Amino acid sequence: MGVMRSVLLAASQSTFLRERAMRTRFVRRATRRFMPGETLEDALAATRVLEGQGLPTILTRLGENLESEADAAAVGDHYVRAQERLRETGLKSEMSVKLTQLGLDLSHATARANLARIAAHAATIGRRVWVDMEGSAYTQATLDLFREVRAGHPNVGVAIQAYLRRTADDLEALVPVGAAIRLVKGAYDEPAAIAFRSKREVDASYVRLAERMLRPDALDAGVFPGFGTHDERIVAHLQRHAQANGVAKERWEFEMLYGIRRELQSKLAAEGHRIRVLVSYGEAWFPWYVRRLAERPANVWFVARSAFAR
Ligand SMILES: Cc1cc2nc3c(=O)[nH]c(=O)nc-3n(C[C@H](O)[C@H](O)[C@H](O)COP(=O)(O)OP(=O)(O)OC[C@H]3O[C@@H](n4cnc5c(N)ncnc54)[C@H](O)[C@@H]3O)c2cc1C
Questions:
Q1: What is the widest separation between alpha-carbon atoms in the chain?
Q2: Where do the H-state alpha helices sit in 66-138?
């Protein structure tokens, strides 16, 4: 792993840097490349434009590791309100949530109740709710809680990370559940004992897992694969693989982040692929934003340039 990536991932955890960066105007401006704004209405406005281009969205409010039951309940309220806005506007978005935002650090029961409430409400508008996967301290709890809530709410899906060595086994256990599964490479700094560290190994793991998700037994069990990646080589491979194996385009989707590889997003939509764009919004953007920089240190120069832009 590059030094820059390690430094940035460490910086993403720093309270000192977070407090300073969030007050700095040029940093706030540079975030606009990756998020349309801090409010739900900003995200809905961006969604309207993207839907017009054949790119429905997944919305997520930034924020992690809350400290009180009241904060976690307020996040639950927010997502229910956001889904009400989807009902009012007719936009096709789905929501994606982090369990630490719903109170996982406080208690399993708090996060479970908040997720179940959001999922129950999402079902009333016919939408899915995605559960993001966070750092490895939360992997088991996230999968356990996902299963518990999924038992009563089939519209819940979960993310899994190709860089974790355990994920092949986790996927085998998830296949019979027949859920929507988002496969991503993984965005945190995990040790070699539990994670593949080189791009080559992570990519190979991603392809193996993706092909597993597209196998007939998985699809027949109800698995809906969401491939969260901007990696053109992998995207092309999956297109070829699905076609060669007769997997129809409606049975799976690509998922990409707002502002990243925009031409590829449009090209896939034009080719008739399902694709969703994940739009983040909210005031707690610092750790999330620095993880985006870590994924592509060249983005740091983009931020630096923004410092001098008008
Ligand atoms: C929809 C979605 C949901 C996600 N959910 C989670 C989650 O729940 N948990 C989790 O750990 N991670 C999540 N991630 C992040 C993911 O783990 C990766 O960190 C991220 O997607 C970068 O990996 P990549 O697959 O795009 O490939 P990479 O190998 O990192 O990149 C491939 C190419 O894509 C482009 N690219 C990638 N990232 C950027 C960027 N930031 N800026 C500009 N260009 C870029 C570059 O051209 C790069 O060469 C999610 C990603 C997506 C798209």
A1: 55
A2: 69-89, 108-124
Please write down the long-range contacts of 209-214, taking CB distance under 8 Å and 24 or more positions apart.
209/160, 209/162, 209/167, 209/168, 209/171, 209/183, 210/183, 210/234, 210/238, 210/241, 211/241, 212/168, 212/171, 212/175, 213/171, 213/181, 213/183, 213/252, 214/238, 214/241, 214/242, 214/245, 214/247, 214/252
Q: In 150-252, where do the E strands start and end? A: 156-161, 180-184, 224-228
Listed in sequence order, the residues at least 6 apart from 2 whose beta carbon sits closer than 8 Å to its beta carbon are 297
132 is catalytic: yes
Active site residue 182: yes
At 247-285, the pLDDT tens digits run: 999 999 999 999 999 999 999 999 999 999 999 998 777
Give the Å distance between the CA of 196 and the centre of ligand 1. 16
User: 231 in ligand 1 pocket by Cβ < 6 Å?
Assistant: yes
Nearest to 257 by CA among 280, 286, 274: 280
Locate the ligand 1 atom nearest the alpha carbon of residue 278 and give its number: 1
> Please, are residues 55 and 269 in contact by the beta-carbon 8 Å criterion?
yes
Query: Residues 132, 170, 189, 203: which is the catalytic one?
Result: 132
d(CA 280, CA 161): 19
User: Which residue matches tokens 């017009």?
Assistant: 52
Give phi and psi for 20, each to the nearest 5: -75, -45
CA 180/CA 150 separation, integer angstroms: 10
User: The whole model's pTM is what?
Assistant: 0.91
Taken in order 126, 281, 133, 204, is the CA torsion positive or negative?
positive
Check residue 144 and give its pLDDT: 98
Q: How far apart are the first and last CA of the chain?
A: 34
